[in-house]
Amino acid sequence: MIRKLANADKETVLELLNRQPAENLFIIGDIEAYGFDDPVTLWGDFNGDGQLVAVLMRYFNHFIPYAPSLEKLDAEGWGRIINLDGRMRQLSGLDMLVRQVMPYIWQPLKTKQTCCYAQREAALPLNGQGQQKDVRMLFPEEAEKMVRLRASIPAFHALSEDHHLLQRNMEKGISRSFYVEKDDRAISAASTSAETRSAAMIVGVCTLPDYQRQGLATSCLIKILAALRAEHKTACLFYDNPDAGRIYEKLGFQSIGHWIVARYG
Description:
The chain is an alpha+beta fold. The protein folds into two domains: 2-107, 3-Layer(aba) Sandwich (Aminopeptidase); 120-264, Gcn5-related N-acetyltransferase (GNAT) (Aminopeptidase, 3-Layer(aba) Sandwich). It has helices spanning 10-17, 25-34, 75-85, 95-101, 143-151, 163-172, 216-230, 242-250; strands at residues 2-4, 40-46, 52-59, 62-66, 90-94, 109-120, 136-137, 177-182, 185-193, 199-207, 234-239, 254-264. The model has no long low-confidence stretch (mean pLDDT 93).
């Protein structure tokens, strides 16, 4: 049986999600930040014994399904919920799950990207060699500086960002950024997203084309990893570039699967 979840279900939901905390970082992070209220909506699938076996989350127009195994995933049921809701523009999640749901989506698919999903345990030692002294922490009121940097980089052109939302997430403690500045503008950065009590997703690792291959983004990344390690948080990230993958492996990241981002509308 599928039904909408409420705050009374929080303990049950987190018990299921925390079986794979890295894989469920986005869902856990949004629950910690917003609870079960707008912009977050959650649905749960319960078996005949009343046990929660799968979850679907909507964050604004972004949906993420989760089940611990394919046998417990009602792909058609989740597809029906998404279609009836009518707000979906992005579907993402673990490769094995999203591929099962996609055939039931009515909307035309625009793009689909598959990335490696990796994590770095907080207890691992961190080699800060090459770390730049001019890496700065971004303050919430400077959020527009990060939005302008990403908008200047081709790989981020498909990303539409609102600096007000970024600022709010920074103020809530679910996002932070470190950056390098030159001539009063950010030229390289790395950020976190969906931070929880135990983990954080690293996003937006980037450098303006004219300043690449100087180790600037790696320096920002090391700064973030040091901060997360001090707080005993596991670092997670996506990548689809083999060169980036080799850098992440040197920093202690290990692959834990694949993640699909499918965009619609």
